[in-house]
Amino acid sequence: MKKSQIFLIGSSLLAFSIQSLAQMPSMSNGEPSAPDQWLLSNGREWHHKTEVSPTPLELKPREPTQQEALLIKRAQGILQSSSTRYMALMDGSDLVWSGAKKPLPENRRIFGMSMGKTVTSLAIGAALCDRKITLNTMVTEFVPELNGTDLGKSTIKNLLMMSSGVWAGYPDSRVYKAEEENELNSGSLSILDVLKRQKVSSFPIGLFGKSAKAGENFEYKSTDPLLLGIILNRSTQMSFGKWVEQSVLLPAGIKRPAIIAQDRFGFGNSDAGIRLFAEDWVRLAVWVNQKQKSDECLGDYIREASKTQIQVNTRPTGHLGYGYFIWTEDKLAPSSYWAAGFAGQRLAWNPKNNRMLVVFSNDASAMDQVSALYRDWSALDVPK
Cα-flanking dihedrals φ and ψ of residue 87, to 5°? Predict the structure, then answer.
């Protein structure tokens, strides 16, 4: 399996954000594929539309240095020779370079796919800092409907590490059947209804019976982030979209309204579902970097979230470690940490400096080149 194909396993982000199963992303040349009509979209009418920050984060364009110019030339080559649609290279709040293969539609946001899991992690961090929850909070404290289930045995930390131990879902990692999607879209079924089902909330039964235990093993799936979205609803007494808006996106200084996918009950598509305009994705990346280096409570959380909390040992991937919905130990850029989506959507940070990368693609075929580019970009300020 190629590095990028791990994100096919995580494509539960399909829920609540596409019109029908016929519009699901396909495979192109062996890679997960997200066509423009899916990558560049504005969600559904019941999704949450945010306000904008009263003080948008300022991005400061600057001319590249000679070394940076060589790497920008490589970035331009990736942009032109692959399915990459947009790429940006930053140094702190300096936007050193950005480019798009074709002009991005002015009225269309970019869907971050499973990068939304990282946004969910940030929203959990904000709830922790507000003392609404703790990492050791049991699921059933806020979701008593899961009392007596295996899924109910998890803590918030277990869920953040993708280690609830329950069933991993269908081959695309969704936990609902195709015919149930219309029920989800119509409001006759909620995300919580899906998670309560015995198959979804139970440890798999092996040859010698149930052998799983919460917190032991990494298993990439939609169940854990979806459940954290419900916990955010219950602990904050807000819809998922409203909490993410208030705790993450407005503080990050977004300049244009975002779209956050959720069901008709306010339970979030918290394994994905975040749609931002391109430069607001850049602002989010810069804000995370700023917080990661701060002495604030959220800075403490991001530093822990971006460290390896559990080893990725269940299948070949481009990363050896996983934090709290953040990928770590990239094989080509080992000192970095990443938010990553289904078909070549990436945010990358290096805790040693302020250099970041943002990229959005229609497929993941160029992601090894992107990792190598970011390795070299982020190494510019690191002492030899």
Answer: -150, 145
